[in-house]
Amino acid sequence: MRVQIAPSILSFDMGDIRRSVVELVSAGADLIHFDVMDGQFVPPITFGCGLVKDLRAVGDTPFEAHLMTSTPDRHFEAFARAGCSRVIFHAEATAHAHRLVGDLHERGLEAGLAINPGTPVEAAVPLLDVLDLVLVMTVNPGWGGQSFIPSCLEKVRRLREAAPDLAIEVDGGIDPDTIRAARDAGATVFVVGSYLARAESIPCAMEELRRRCI
Ligand code: DX5
Ligand code: ZN
With 90 as the cut, is the pLDDT of residue 147 above it? Predict the structure, then answer.
């Protein structure tokens, strides 16, 4: 399965975000990861579907929305219309994850389920036959620039064993060292925020990440 690097725009300067997304796309980003926070599910508030819509004109690189929100299904239609091809919601935000996966598929979206560091991997196991992706959080959601939590990789290993063909994404604290550990555990999609946002050269940083996760 091809590995994918998914830059998160969370740590970039929102006043200059269009230029940053153009640069990330030109440097070969496989998809762009939008961290949507509602101030309820997690304390910070970030941005909504309007930003996704405005940036959709930047090429045709796939966009994914990581909904760190309560009642995630209230937002599915808006992010579909804004130009996302995948929406990831949190297992902790709903009692009806199976139904929400079906709701995403009915809208033509890929469905991802995110699990926090404190959530057992068992939360995803009943849905492995319908999910397009599981996002294993390797930090506690809400902020960029946090330290990677190595123990979360055990979940990646368990998921890879249970579902050899599943897309498994890791999100939080990813840099050239941790991307190697996550790849070895079986992850295939890597969200990278602050490592890219603070890079001198985004193309060089992307190349280093790609080199380390082959
Ligand atoms: C945190 C977000 C992550 C975060 C990753 O809640 O889901 O996508 O932006 O940022 P870094 O790579 O800085 O940990
Ligand atoms: Zn994220």
Answer: yes
Catalytic residue among 13, 38, 129, 171: 171
Please state the rounded mean pLDDT for residues 142-171. Answer: 98
For ligand 1, atom 12: residue with the closest CA:
193
Q: Which helix (H) or strand (E) holds 5?
A: strand 4-7
Confidence check: pLDDT of 153 > 90: yes
Q: Amino acid identity of 127?
A: L
Is residue 16 part of the annotated active site? The answer reads: no
CA of 97 to the centre of ligand 1 (A): 22
- The H or E element spanning position 6 is strand 4-7
pLDDT value of residue 1? 74
Topology given in CATH for the domain delimited by 4-212: TIM Barrel (3.20.20)
Q: What is the structure's pLDDT at 77?
A: 98
Predicted TM-score of the model (pTM): 0.98
Is-catalytic flag, 35? yes
196 alpha carbon, closest ligand: 1
Beta strands in 91-210 (DSSP E): 110-115, 133-137, 167-171, 189-192
- For residue 57, the CA-to-ligand 1 centroid distance in Å is 24
